[in-house]
Amino acid sequence: MHSHHRIDWEDLRFVLAVAEANSLAAAARALGVNHTTVLRRVGSFEQKLGVRLFDRLPSGYTLTAGGEELLAVARQMAETVTELERRLTGQDLRLEGSLRITTTDTLMASILPSILAAFRQRHPGVLLEVSTSNALANLSHRDADVAIRPAVDSPDALVGRRIASVAFAIYAAPSYLQECRVASVDEVDFARERWIGLGDALASTSVARWMRAALPSPAALRCDSLVAAREAAVAGIGLTALPCYLGDTTPGLIRIGAPVADMTRELWLLTHEDLRRTARVSAFTEFAGQALAKYRPLFEGHRPAEPAR
């Protein structure tokens, strides 16, 4: 069987460096390694190919005719590879092109738009595509580049950072509390109140699970999104559970009681392992990570102190 001479691209880099520099020492300096390493890589390369590439002369290393031939091809290859790398990440150097973000409607109804606006100001060439369907876009199949969403933990194959824990609490409109003649929020008896529940689309979430376990059924109204539940609560239809970052920032809602521990989630900023190095994705995750972290007190349900009277 014919033994196939595989060209080792790494070895080739060393050969190219020596050819450019005409000397081992200069090539070693250019590559940031010691000169025995260069000697070894060039030697092993010549041995694998069974070709002598350099004449070792007192004046330095000069290419043999075979070496010249190989090097011409190698240089073309190196240029092609560099060109390919530039093309793949090239749009990214200028930070242009589209970036697909999957997130939740509650984040888009509260904190995220101002963060996206600030990112766009800094990188006007990036077009943002935001998807807020409650179905978790599948990052591993590349439906999105970045996900910003509550999860119990970071899914495999995805890399990311945990931004904060996400607290949930119960909210109602002042009009509802008046109608029910509740003098203070401390006397709300959850079991006797009217509720805005969550539909099947959210059935598996920690909020829906808590509501099913803790509350009398059936709900006066069921919504398939927390943003819709918020709107229903503002209208005075009943009590509902919301993430504090949404409930606490909604004028016309009052938080009743402390956050409910059983509903707590974690907010993650995730991307796919293969994408984390593209400039657009890393610029966005860096920027969004810092911006989101500033909202940690809001995410974790620590109310801003009441303004002094």
Strand order of the largest sheet: 4-3-5-12-6
Number of strands: 12
What value does the Rg take, in angstroms?
30 Å
Strand content: 15-25%
Q: Assign the structural class, choosing from mainly alpha, mainly beta, alpha/beta, alpha+beta, or little secondary structure.
A: alpha/beta
Number of helices: 12
The major beta sheet can be summarized as:
5 strands, mixed
Q: What overall geometry do the principal axes of the alpha carbons give?
A: rod-shaped
The low-confidence parts are 305-309
Mean pLDDT over the residues: 84
Q: What's the N-to-C terminus distance? A: 90 Å
State the helicity in percent bands: 40-55%
Query: What is the H/E order?
Result: HHHEEHEHHEEEEHEHEHEHEEHH
Q: Could you describe the 3D structure shown?
A:
The protein contains 12 helices and 12 strands. The protein is an alpha/beta fold and 309 residues long. The strands form 4 sheets. The protein has a 5-stranded mixed sheet with strand order 4-3-5-12-6. It has a 3-stranded antiparallel sheet with strand order 10-7-11. Helix 6 (112-122) packs across helix 11. The protein is rod-shaped. The chain starts with 8 loop residues before the first helix and ends in a 10-residue tail after the last helix. Mean pLDDT is 84; it is low at 305-309.
